[in-house]
Amino acid sequence: MGTWNSRGLRGSTLEDMVNRTNEWYLEKNLALMQKIPTPITPVRMDKEHRQITLAYFDQRSTIDYIGAVQGIPVCFDAKECVAETFPLQNIHEHQVEFMKNFEKQQGVAFVLIYYSSRNILYYMRFEELYRFWMRAQNGGRKSFRFEELDERFFMKFFHGCYVPYLDALNLDLELRDELDKTDETAYNAK
Predict the structure, then answer these.
(1) Which Enzyme Commission numbers does its entry carry (predicted)?
(2) Which pTM does this prediction carry?
(3) Which SS3 state, helix, strand or coil, does residue 52 take?
């Protein structure tokens, strides 16, 4: 099991931006999203500065954020990537399983990826993540490349620091509606 000292602050830039965005969405009555804390057990403390210097994760966390957007249950994870290739080992099987079950309950699950070298954000629909995940499980690439991503879901920071994931979520929902209509038309034609 990893330690907080070695892994705990990775992704903190994106997390700070997402937290700020969530506060802004709440102020505008657009969404209520909560950060799910990762349970840790402190091992070593710096008493002078009252800081944890070493800790162990108690259990696996599911995803980073959960809440509701205009009555729609939403959960997502936030990841940072420096390279052009995103290793799927950064997303754990229990997280994929949680998001899969969340989607089965009519919720919307996704992953926000911050490509720090490009200073660009990506909204990865669960369907897209699952396709890459299954490719890896079936012996294919254990990562996905920047070029493989759907151009419609790249985002730029709003006002330089806000993560406009509600716009991407809206597009995600529109695509789902289109697919539902296509499936319904095909079903009725039979």
Answers:
(1) 3.1.21.10
(2) 0.80
(3) strand
